[in-house]
Amino acid sequence: MSEMTQTAAKPRIERSATASRTYTIFVIIGLAALILAPMFFYPIFLMKLLCFALFACAFNLLLGYTGLLSFGHATFFGGAAYFTAHVVKEWGFPPELGILTGVVGAALLGLVMGFFAIRRQGIYFAMITLALSQMFFFFCLQAEFTQGEDGIQSVPRGHLFGFIDLNSSTNMYYFVLAVFLIGMVIIWRFINSPFGMILRSIRENEPRAISLGYSVARYKLGAFVMSAALAGLAGGLKSLVFQFATLTDVAWQMSGEVILMTLLGGIGTLIGPIFGAGLVVTLQNYLATSQFPVTIVTGVIFMVCVLVFRRGIIGEFYASRLGRKLGFEHRR
Amino acid sequence: MAVAATAKQEESRVVLSARGLSKSFGAFMAVKNVDLDVHHARVHALIGPNGAGKTTVFNLLTKFLQPTAGSITLLGTDITKTPPDRIARMGLVRSFQISAVFPHLTVLDNVRVALQRTNGLSTQFWLPVSSLDRLNARADELIESVGLKRERNALAADLSYGRKRVLEIATTLALDPKVLLLDEPMAGMGQEDIGTVSNIIREVAKTRAVLMVEHNLSVVADICHHVTVLQRGEILAEGDYATVSQDPRVRTAYMGTEEA
């Protein structure tokens, strides 16, 4: 019996070595593609894609790695967009400080929402986050600084560190790319850290984690705040890219969209949500000019995903024969 | 002489006690007025037919359930209102009836998760996972002590049921608990694993208190110093195994007939 587990254990280690090699190669290819992309695609489209990819990855940090389904992430994305837009436009903050304000604001919102929601599980957790984010939506609708239905328009991009002009779309693109990569590195480190290890153990067996003496709620709250802060990073960045922040960013549809992106790409895979976001954003862009209604098409895709490829694009790829040959292994 | 006396005193020290412990779910009284004293360096068994309330008592003692009435004292501190994770940090660690491992972590990682807490390596989200490697020496020691050395890098999910239970004990021991609560540690185990686990428990109980729920009466007879029999949520009998097993009420409760 132990003989068998022994032989089963051996190839697993070798496989994970192959996986890290393939992973490195993929990351290099991906980086090269992202650096060269503005030569082939419209930069605003690419920037939008990166913002939503970061947003989806931040969301996945919570759903995929902590097992918490939040239905209120628009609050952090849209809230940060408002904060950044406001301080940059009204107070004349430089872009880097503007984004930082957005991140801190989103983290604080995350702390409050997390505090109320974290003790509940499953559908109750989702409902509380939804309710709180609806409250925030109506706050944004009424508050003066958000300028209600108009939103904050013509936000200046400004000069990064005082000398890089972000009004040039090339400069802006590489700035967005840099922030996106920093966000991804933070997520990667967070998942693969002592803290991430505890999160994994909580997701695997929560009562056991409690019986080992972990105050589970605090770890979940930590992950929630981190996820909120990173969603805020994406939101703040987005308000600089489009130069506006509106109610669309804090509406519940945005929370739904990010769930869709994450599911399509693959829950619990580091890069899956990037692909999910890419697919959704691309569809939205192309369908905007066609006669197909976007919501129906994304709805159908969502149904197909749930029925046919539940692991999501990247999840299915990892689990496929080719994926396994390359050394990937899809957990859970 | 004096040393022997303190050792004696140490031996009979009560580390965990419950007084008048009761739990009702609506009109149903799952546990009624249970008094329990768990001593240092002793293996204490909690036995009884199915539905007697053994697991409920466990859940009450570890605060996974809040008692309806009664009080619980751990190492001289009243813990009747203390949350379960803090109780674990105070040194009362439990296992579960169903195997409680982290299935998609390796054996090594399972043990390290426990060591992470006692070594203050659980909140650092900025450090790489390799920072946990300094726990390996202690983790390997524990893994070896329960005979899991060959499965060190296997996923816990791939282990046989018995081996999972053994891993669970290793993880629990990593916390160096003062009181150990084991919920049916031998259930579903092969004969070979039962021997291993019996030896581990005997060894562990030299320096700690152990309270275990167990159905395997030969194991109880073999390693337990003290037995409490529960029936319908109440204590039916108490004493060492020889006394308890001769008690006609216990025989009736278990077999349904006097002569069985």
Automatic annotation (TrEMBL), chain A:
It comes from Neorhizobium galegae bv. officinalis. This is Inner-membrane translocator. The chain crosses the membrane at residues 23-42, 49-77, 97-116, 123-145, 172-191, 221-246, 258-280, 292-313. Pfam families: BPD_transp_2. InterPro entries: ABC_transp_permease (IPR001851), LivM-like (IPR043428). The lineage of its organism: Bacteria, Pseudomonadati, Pseudomonadota, Alphaproteobacteria, Hyphomicrobiales. Keywords: Cell membrane, Membrane, Transmembrane, Transmembrane helix. It is found in: Cell membrane. GO terms for molecular function: branched-chain amino acid transmembrane transporter activity. Its main location: membrane. GO terms for cellular component: plasma membrane. It is a multi-pass membrane protein.
